[in-house]
Amino acid sequence: MEITTRNEKNAVVVTVTGRMDAVTAPEFEKNLSPLMAAGAGTVVINFRELEYISSAGLRSILAVAKQLKAHQREMVITGLQGSVQEVFKLSGFYSIFKIAASEEEALNTD
Q1: Which residue, 32, 37, 63, 65, has fewest beta-carbon neighbours within 10 Å?
Q2: Which of the 8 DSSP states describes residue 109?
Q3: What's the pLDDT tens digit per position in 22-31?
Q4: CB neighbours (10 Å) of residue 60?
């Protein structure tokens, strides 16, 4: 799994590439930890390049969202497609999280 971050408008865009499973999910949380209390604004998580997500990956997303909420930050997920999108739908994450059709839409959710 590869994670890249960049600042865009009043947001941080996190792009996740590869697989998020029991081995890599802790790395996701670790990489996002510095973003938790670092300023205000939205954290946009772009899963456009994510090929696979397991239940451990879903738990990590929940943990990150909880920490962001504790710091009054919002999380928007975008780029869902294929099997990752299906997992999000089946797990009920579409009703839990703000999901945007595109990164541009996610950045304009203020």
Answers
A1: 37
A2: -
A3: 999 999 999 9
A4: 23
Please report, as a single letter, which amino acid is at residue 52.
Y
Task: List, for residues 36-85, the tens digit of each pLDDT value.
Answer: 767 668 999 999 999 999 999 999 999 999 999 888 889 999 999 999 99
Which tokens is 86 given?
A: 């299906």
The answer, as to whether pTM is greater than 0.90, is yes
Hey, what amino acid is at 33? S
The CATH number covering residue 21 comes to 3.30.750.24
Token pair, residue 43, equals 């954290």
The answer to whether the CB of 74 falls within 8 A of the CB of 68 is yes
Structure tokens at 1: 């799994």
Q: Which domain holds residue 101?
A: 2-107
Number of domains observed in the structure of the chain: 1
